[in-house]
Amino acid sequence: MRAFDPELWPIVWLTLRVTITSLAIAAAVGIPVGVWLGLARFPGKQTLTALVYTGMALPPVVVGLLVYLLLSRSGPLAFLEWLFTPNAMILAQTVMALPLVTGLVMGAVAAVPSELVRQIRSLGATPRQVWWAILREARLGVLFALLVAFGRIVSEVGAAYMVGGNIQGQTRVLSTAIMMETGKGDFALALALGGWLLVLALSVNLAAMRLQGKTL
Amino acid sequence: MRYGALILLLGPVLFAAGCHGTPAKSILVATTTSIRDTGLLDELLPIFRAKTGIEVRVVAVGTGQALEIGRRGDADAVLTHDPTGEERFVGDGFGTKRLPVMWNEFVLVGPPEDPARVRSAKSGAEAFRRLREQQAVFISRGDESGTHQKEKAIWASAKIEPVGAWYVRAGQGMGAVLRMADEKRGYTLSDWGTYLAQRDRLHLVIIYKGDPEWINPYAVLPVNPNKHRHVKHDLAQQFADFLISEETQQLIADFGREKFGEPLFRVDLPSKGGGQ
Known about the structure:
- By secondary structure, chain A is mostly helical.
- Chain A has ten helices and no strands.
- Chain B has helices at 2-17, 33-38, 40-52, 63-71, 83-91, 124-133, 146-157, 174-184, 192-198, 233-244, 246-254, 257-260, and strands spanning 26-32, 55-61, 77-80, 99-110, 138-140, 167-169, 188-191, 205-208, 215-222.
- The A-B interface holds A 17, 20-21, 23-25, 27-28, 31, 72-75, 83-87, 90, 135-136, 139, 142-143, 146, 165-168, 170, 180, 182-185, 208, 211, 215 and B 1-4, 7-8, 10-12, 14-15, 17-19, 22, 28, 33, 37, 57-60, 72-74, 172-173, 175-176, 178-179, 197-198, 201-202, 228, 230.
């Protein structure tokens, strides 16, 4: 059974590590920014919103190329020495996940009825309490945003290949391994790796559904 | 939002776990998919590491991209197969030298029934002319790889500008292009190693080979530390020396004999400069 080949463990583990780390960073930044964008009224908001929505459609290969050029020895962030390491992949995936989380959270927050917002405020809530209450109200949308971002990161191949380099035992993740094995014509192994990817996605979504059932 | 708090806590931990870095002695080598896909490096690198303690991290891309990675100083050495591009690489000061490692040949593969009747061609250029005349489906790598460069050179030598619906620019690696040719019942130019390694999964057969010009030489080029100070030139040079050492050359010459019945690479290139 090649699907359970011990050689695959580092690949599965790295996939999880890169995905969860990128998602955590994207959530830490994207959720507050999304809530703020969803609530705030200021001139230029529409432009900013359009930018965030455009960011949701960033082509992975372009992100990969930009991150490559940033981290390259000839680039401005060369001192980090991140190129062809998992950190480079985390950076690229975070760049792609951030607009997704921000945009979807913003949408979820904007969908909270404005009367409710007014009501909370009129009850004398501090701004922090208002944010918290609205985040609670929009939690389903926030969870959905995280799941979508997870899906994008875990299956992304172009940027991961470009800035990670698909180095065996170091930066090979499920998606790049699938691409490589497909290129080599080893469809059976590619399928087995694809199966692992599905298992990861399924487990995360099941966990999210459990969570949803508990707290929502 | 207890879940959010959880991943916020977990994230930095995982992030930190990723910062353990690479061993003190490691180099990055940019090479071509055609080398990686044969598995040659999987056999050679552990030996090199046991001898020198140097870990070689391999990034496999097309030759064009590999040379570009070297040019930007993101690799310590490149191992590629585009003599012209490699000489320019050294000429422009990006590599210290070009050391021929091994070679095999390019072969024209196609459907066994050979609809364009290329088999009896007397030269590589003639074979390509027949493809053009018959408008036979030809899958080009189209990715500036070493194989693509060679293919363009052959078209040029046949004085043909390949355009038309029959000429498909795939922009993919050798393995993918071989399978595309297989599915489309078309022809393509392949390096011998990749074709041999995938032959069992393909219907394609060798239609033409043997033109003395159709040599596919691989060379290793340490990246010049004068251009990029941080490049580990000493270690890269050790890697190059290892590849061209007598012992390694013997290993390369025997590689694949057991699995495929014939070797994937040859090392006894008569003119040490490549086949151009």
